[in-house]
Specification:
It is built from two helices and six strands; from the N terminus they run αββββββα. The protein is of the alpha+beta class and 160 residues long.
Length: 160
């Protein structure tokens, strides 16, 4: 009995499954790495959130890390609310115990009114460390290299 052919088919099937799984997983992995390394700053990505500025109430806003505060304005009149009437800081969110951005209205004539909070931020899951962002990018590169290394021997056999 010739077992050489059977081993070749087993290796071929294993390699095909590895290639298919690698290609299927490459897109979601690269999407997650892109989101974790993207910095959302600038006017285009500034988040405009309307909340009611009830004094003493903390509101959890979208984002993981506060980059800049663009301003807090009165929703109805558009007047700028002085920074002495609110705090906009990074915090530990009570909803999920993760790092986030919190707005807290202090006492003042704007307490209880609808307001617009504009700020730039890093998204949830952002990798703070530059080395971590580099490693995350290298993971995608190495995944693509491994898939290519699995395919190349079979391509070479076809042309031999």
């Amino acid at each position: 009995m010739n077992k050489k052919g059977q081993v070749g088919i087993g290796i071929l099937i294993t390699t095909a499954i590895a290639i298919i799984l690698g290609l299927v997983l490459l897109l979601p992995i690269s999407t997650n790495v892109e989101q974790a390394t993207r910095t959302e700053t600038g006017v285009i990505t500034a988040r405009n959130t309307t909340i009611t500025g009830t004094a003493g109430t903390t509101y959890e806003l979208t984002g993981q890390e506060l980059v800049t505060t663009l301003g807090v304005t009165n929703q109805s009149g558009g007047g700028v609310i002085p920074t002495t009437n609110y705090t906009l800081v990074e915090c530990v969110r009570t909803s999920d115990n993760l790092k986030g951005i919190c707005y807290r209205a202090l006492t003042g004539p704007w307490s209880g009114l609808g307001i617009n909070v504009s700020y730039t931020y890093y998204p949830n899951g952002y990798i703070d460390d530059a080395g971590g962002r580099s490693i995350a990018a290298i993971i995608i590169l190495l995944t693509a290299v491994v898939i290519a290394l699995l395919i190349i021997p079979h391509i070479r056999k076809e042309f031999d």
